[in-house]
Amino acid sequence: MSPVPLIERYRDALPLEPDDPVISLNEGSTPLIEAPVISEMVGARVLLKFEGANPTGSFKDRGMTVAVSRAAGRGAEAVICASTGNTAASAAAYAARAGVRGAVIVPEGKIAIGKLAQALMHGARVVALRGNFDDALRIVRELAERHPIELVNSVNPYRIEGQKTAAFEVIDELGEAPDALAIPVGNAGNVTAWNRGFTERGARPILYGFQAEGAAPLVAGHPIPNPETVASAIRIGNPARWEEAMDAITSSRGRVAAVSDERILAAYHLLAEREGVFCEPASAASVAGILEHGLPVAEGQDPPETVVCVLTGHGLKDPDTALGKAPAVIPCDAELAAVERVVFD
Ligand SMILES: *Cc1c(COP(=O)(O)O)cnc(C)c1O
């Protein structure tokens, strides 16, 4: 099968106008990977939806293709977003593809280096804000009200529409919805989107949302003024889709829970070393969550037998975190015996 733009595959379920151009990098159709080691550890069949395999390396591309196509159809000349990194990378790529200007506002010093490289390579104007993500989002919302520029954060309804297709793909591939979904939660757009996708297909899996301990407003029940976590993609203190996400999780009889950075990094290493899947730290929160909290169910409810963990972004995005705790490389002379000693030691 040749690659097909997500918009072509699911056009009937997407709110685009017939004349909108299709601005696509053939996103979606990401692998759903069996995770035998983690399955054994949690006592259920665990599958990994590897969203890092999207064109810019995160699920943001699913929403961006729809948001930028609609913006182009409407004649927008520029797109803007606040971002912890991946939205910036994706917006910059799709803006380049559409031939419109891109501007991205990121929290100074808090963005993984690969994401910064992407945004700059795609020619976006990159603004490093002396503030956090929540400050950046507040400012771009005001800018978009004052200027003819399209806001492509997940407050943009087309982003959610595009992202819901991940749920369609899982159902299409498994032949039915999984019993549960485990997903990292930052600004809470993605859990909202998955829930919409399942709902539109008449499915009702249990939703487990996981936040990093230092950035867990949904668990605390109030905004966190200075969120901190190694998982920079979910370093968000005041999620834009707070109510929608909580409604989705609660009505699925699921939970939102926090996981420590230590456990996030342990899951990050486990995924890479034992399952062969390299995701970014924020993504590993989904696996860390089910390893720490198990698969809790409401009274009288059957425990889930099949769980999909969403791995939201690619590990290559954040080489600094990967190399920070990695074993040292081994220097060696260019002689067979020396290499032999080092390799078989
Ligand atoms: C954006 C992002 C998240 C969080 O998604 P929300 O929609 O903000 O909840 C998680 N992981 C990665 C890698 C992301 O890029």
List the main descriptive attributes of the protein structure presented here:
43% helix; Rossmann fold; 15% strand; 15 helices; alpha/beta; binds pyridoxal-5'-phosphate; 345 residues
- List ligands, each type once: pyridoxal-5'-phosphate
Portion of residues in beta strands equals: 5-15%
| Count of discrete alpha- or pi-helical segments spanning 4 or more residues | 15
Query: Helicity level, as a percent range?
Result: 40-55%
Question: What is the CATH C level class of the largest domain, in words?
Answer: Alpha Beta
CATH architecture descriptor name of the largest domain: 3-Layer(aba) Sandwich
Largest beta sheet: what is the strand line-up? 1-2-10-7-8-9
* Average predicted local confidence, pLDDT: 96
CATH topology type of the largest domain: Rossmann fold
Would you kindly provide a written description of the structure presented here, covering whatever features stand out?
- By secondary structure, this protein is α/β, with parallel strands linked by helices.
- The protein contains 15 helices and ten strands.
- β7, α9 (189-200) and β8 (206-212) form a beta-alpha-beta unit.
- It has two domains: 6-58 and 158-324, 3-Layer(aba) Sandwich (Rossmann fold); 60-156, Rossmann fold (3-Layer(aba) Sandwich), CATH 3.40.50.
- The termini are far apart.
- It has a six-stranded mixed β-sheet with strand order 1-2-10-7-8-9, with helices on both faces.
- It binds pyridoxal-5'-phosphate (PLP).
- The site of pyridoxal-5'-phosphate has 18 residues, from α9 and α13.
